[in-house]
Amino acid sequence: MIEHRVRVHPSADRLPREDQLAWKLAAVATGTEELDVDSAAMAVNRVVDNASVAVASLLRRPVAVARAQATAHPAGGPGATVFGTRTRVSPEWAAWANGTAVRELDFHDTYLAADYSHPGDNIPPLLAVAQHTGRTGADLLRGIVAAYEIHVALVKGICLHEHRIDHVAHLSAATACGLGALLRLPTGTVYQAVQQAVHTTTATRQSRKGEISSWKAYAPAFAGKAAIEAVDRAMRGETSPSPVYEGEDGFLAWMLDGPEADYTVLLPGPGEPRRAILDTYTKEHSAEYQAQAIIDLARRMREKTGPLDRVRSVVLHTSHHTHHVIGSGANDPQKYDPTASRETLDHSVPYIFAVALQDGTWHHERSYAPERARRPETVDLWRKITTVEDPEWTRRYHDPDADRRAFGGRAVITLDDGTVIEDELAVADAHPAGARPFDRPAYARKFRTLTEGIVAPAEQDRFLASAEHLAELGSADLDGLFPAVDTGAVAARPSTAWWPAPPPPR
């Protein structure tokens, strides 16, 4: 790996474009050729994972709204498919609808380092453009692996959240790079697209604070849509704010560490394999990633606690991020509100621990149902749970050795007679270093479970076979990456949305 120093430069420096981070990212993307076998296999897993959660979210209102918006923009050419339909729309609108569907349940992959990310958010815009431009499965794989490489590098090297900038700013750059690899664009074109994408998708983290709204699902879809539009403009010869990262009025100087900003971003050198996707991990449970191990811990501890009405208090000792973002350290009263939105509850580790401790399981719908959140005994237990930052868990969260990195915590449960029950879990069971690391059969089981009753068994088989042979798919075969949905079965199910589309506004 090559260390690239990224710092602010005055305009008078006329920083050569080859020395700018956007160029170096573009060069890695356009230099992505023969793929590492393991990386390509993991990319297939993530295509399956995305389809699983996208289909499972089709009834959710934000997804139905995004789908309705997208289908109002029919393709003027080949177009791209929208999950849950056979409608072809323009690729940027397919990215919008599908990106929202993938993100809605907070149930796909993650990477955590200096910043946070869901690298699977790159896949919907890449798949949309691959369909629209007649690319092959091999082209799509190349784009996915390149996008993950860039996304992981940025998340390792540049922290956004400490400046309350939403993590989709890194996503848009990665997607632009992935599109460049997919389409085999010149480095100069991708360089311009990266800068446009970053410039237009920098936003605050209020989308993940307080009363969290449906925009949490839309934000990465917006970034994907913006990246497609940026690549389109760059391909037509348009230029960008430059240097977007290093400029004296640019991203680092005014959004991040200021004029003295100085970061190091590690990128593969020429000929090095692109293996960053292997550092990422998916979710077994539909919740914020730092809650994955906490759910598994609660399930393990429930056998030791006895009747939960005897619990006096629960303290979760955990990392800075878990305490301040999804724990009581956020100082968000909404995290203890039984009428809070689903988006807020999946960012409340006290709620999540309470429900997992009571139920011994976690479900992407039932665990968040309004009647579940308002159950009196749940509210009583929930409000006894607090988090504290433990410096050792924070250190483990940021351990440079991925094999030692920890995203869990230690739970201390005190009963009404003073008995103390303690246990800890470093990583989720499904993490690569966990008790049951996710493998290809696990991804297939997740797909079958989440699409049961929505996608017929024979269609499940057909989709999984298509994904399994992604590298061999021709351009016409990419349609097979969209499972056909039984719309009649979907329409008969209880819904949190309108199917097939919301009514027009009054």
Q: Give the overall form.
A: globular
Q: Which consecutive residue ranges, at least 5 long each, have pLDDT under 50?
A: 495-506
Task: Please tell me the total number of domains.
Answer: 2
CATH fold descriptor of the largest domain: 2-methylcitrate dehydratase PrpD
Mean pLDDT: 93
Rounded to an integer in angstroms, the radius of gyration calculated over CA atoms is 22 Å
> How helix-rich are the residues, as a percent range?
40-55%
Structure explained in plain terms:
- This protein has a four-stranded mixed β-sheet with strand order 8-7-9-10.
- It has helices at 21-30, 37-56, 61-71, 91-103, 123-133, 137-157, 168-183, 187-201, 215-235, 251-255, 292-305, 320-326, 342-345, 349-359, 370-373, 376-382, 391-397, 440-451, 457-468, 487-491; strands spanning 2-7, 80-81, 88-89, 111-112, 116-117, 262-267, 311-318, 385-389, 409-415, 420-425.
- The protein is 45% helix and 9% strand.
- It starts with a strand and ends in a 15-residue tail after the last helix.
- Residues 495-506 have low confidence and may be disordered.
- The protein folds into two domains: 22-238 and 261-279, Orthogonal Bundle (2-methylcitrate dehydratase PrpD), CATH 1.10.4100; 289-425, 60s Ribosomal Protein L30, Chain: A (2-Layer Sandwich).
- It has 506 residues and is an alpha+beta fold.
- The protein has 20 helices and ten strands.
